[in-house]
Amino acid sequence: MRKINVFDTTLRDGEQSPGVSLNFEEKVEIGKQLERLGTDIIEAGFPASSKGDFEAVKRISDLVSDSSVTGLSRSLQKDIDVSWEALKNGAEPRLHVFLATSPVHMKYKLGMTPDQVVENAVESVKYARQRFPKVQFSAEDACRSDWDFLVRITEQVIDAGAEVINLPDTVGYITPAEIQEMFTYMKENVRNIEKANLSAHCHDDLGMAVANSLAAVEGGADQVECAINGIGERAGNASLEEIAVALHIRGDYYKAKTDLTLNEVKRTSALVSRVTGMQVPNNKAVVGDNAFAHESGIHQDGMLKEKSTYEIITPELVGVSSNRMVLGKHSGRHAFVEKLKELGYHNTTEEEVKRVFTAFKALADKKKEVSDEDIFALMTEEKLDSSTAHYELQSLQVNYGTHNIPTAALTVAAPDGEVVEEAATGSGSVEAVYNTIERIVGDAITLKDYRIQSITGGEDALAEVFVTVRLNDEEAPGRGTAHDVLEASAKAYIHAVNRILSRRAEGMETAETLEV
Ligand SMILES: CC(=O)SCCNC(=O)CCNC(=O)[C@H](O)C(C)(C)COP(=O)(O)OP(=O)(O)OC[C@H]1O[C@@H](n2cnc3c(N)ncnc32)[C@H](O)[C@@H]1OP(=O)(O)O
Ligand SMILES: CC(C)C(=O)C(=O)O
């Protein structure tokens, strides 16, 4: 296995993400975490760009000993001098100096001829080598540069003392096949290439930064430059975690590996996301919240039988505690029964599972994700309420408007099996529902207490209603759970009535038994 050096640029190119500006403490915290992650090189900033960046690069360079710390410099002696001041006390000071090599950059941005660019780059590398033990030269916009010009400048900066040559895809333009061919070309045509390592630094403008970095490795790159969560200028850099995990999982194909401590990946990603304020999308590979979540019934069933059916990366590999089975509208019975067991329901009958699964599917149609608390509520209803089911709500419709009298229409299965339809008005929607139930039961019912709470947070949370009602001389509490507040209110009321009727039936049974 070939070792690939990981050059992290979260603190330099990553900080160039529009809207991101890290203070001293934040940069140092990320620097320490990158060392824990095991990155070979940490590009801590651009020392000549500001006093703050200078101080942060200096602090990280002084503090970090297990990674080599570097800073970026233009091809100017004053930038190199400032970088030396920031990095000189580090364990392995290294300079990253760059100059553009593409026709468009040389002509319009730098106003230099190709010969002047070569001359200037060589001078800077020689100057830097008088201080730094290790110098990396980047040919900015290499992927839009003439390959033979790249060969020429590379040979000369290697002769001047550069030991790493970076060929960046500065504007995210190249394709995987092209970059692989370009690296192969450089390996085959640069006469002194054995004295230097080649590095790839890819941007994601066309969404190919990770694919291009891996293709560069196939073409012979010894180093990849990347950022945590793929942050960076414009659409960002290649994402470090995706490259590292791809090399780990597909080492059989790439025949290459990194020395990263992969189980620090998730923690590093979370830190960078929190500190930069750049949220990681849920569906982001490796570190997104959904990366180890399974929602559909067929996938969940496969996972329960054998994890490798649908999981090529174990969550533990990158420091995520476990995968997640999300119960939602696409889930099936296998995952549902597994969840019941996990929640401690070991002795459920097939009939119970069937009924609760039906209620779960109905809820999942209305709610994005069914939580453990929701399932507890459904099971509580099943366990406690099916035994007292005298009246059973079948459907409910409420008509409410600020200028109308609220009207409710309910369909309820009565204790004798008859399906009754009734309607009534009220001063509010809940009262209209309760007046309708009173008509169906055919007896005076008084509401003594009414309380409502949501079971989980969010707009689509389940509502739980608690009531106390009085029917003739008897009082009973009732509880109802539903996605809708009015349905939960109706269920709670009917539940209380059913309890009173059950109590009466039990009393009668006892009296009859006593008589016998
Ligand atoms: C591809 C990349 O990501 S490169 C890194 C980009 N990162 C940054 O630019 C962040 C930090 N930059 C800064 O803080 C500032 O741009 C500074 C301090 C570096 C320079 O600021 P200023 O002196 O105000 O110059 P400004 O940024 O406007 O222009 C850049 C100048 O550097 C020149 N330049 C650009 N690249 C290089 C280079 N590699 N070597 C030498 N000069 C360069 C430009 O031609 C321009 O020169 P000019 O003023 O003679 O036209
Ligand atoms: C300075 C270089 C490496 C760079 O950031 C780029 O070309 O994108």
TrEMBL record:
Molecular function GO labels:
2-isopropylmalate synthase activity; acetyl-CoA C-acetyltransferase activity; manganese ion binding
Which keywords does this chain's UniProt record carry? Amino-acid biosynthesis, Branched-chain amino acid biosynthesis, Cytoplasm, Leucine biosynthesis, Manganese, Metal-binding, Transferase
What EC number(s) has UniProt assigned to this enzyme? Answer: 2.3.3.13
Keyword Cytoplasm assigned: yes
The organism's superkingdom is given as: Bacteria
What range(s) does the Pyruvate carboxyltransferase domain occupy? 4-266
Quote any Pfam family the record assigns. LeuA_dimer
Cofactor(s) recorded for this entry are: Mn(2+)
Tell me the pathway.
Answer: Amino-acid biosynthesis; L-leucine biosynthesis; L-leucine from 3-methyl-2-oxobutanoate: step 1/4
The record's InterPro entries line, in alphabetical order, gives: 2-IPM_HCS-like, 2-isopropylmalate_synth_dimer, AIPM/Hcit_synth_CS, Aldolase_TIM, LeuA/HCS_post-cat, LeuA_allosteric_dom_sf, LeuA_bact_synth, PYR_CT
GO CC terms in record: cytoplasm
Q: What reaction(s) does this enzyme catalyze?
A: 3-methyl-2-oxobutanoate + acetyl-CoA + H2O = (2S)-2-isopropylmalate + CoA + H(+)
The UniProt annotation places Mn(2+) binding at: D13, H201, H203, N237
Q: Where is this region: Regulatory domain?
A: 392-516
The keyword Repeat is assigned to this record = no
Provide a GO biological process annotation.
Answer: L-leucine biosynthetic process
What role does it play?
Catalyzes the condensation of the acetyl group of acetyl-CoA with 3-methyl-2-oxobutanoate (2-ketoisovalerate) to form 3-carboxy-3-hydroxy-4-methylpentanoate (2-isopropylmalate).
The family assignment reads:
Belongs to the alpha-IPM synthase/homocitrate synthase family. LeuA type 1 subfamily.
What quaternary structure, including any partners, is listed in this protein's UniProt entry?
Homodimer.
Can you say what this protein is called? 2-isopropylmalate synthase
Q: Which organism is it from?
A: Salsuginibacillus halophilus
Task: Provide the gene name from the record.
Answer: leuA
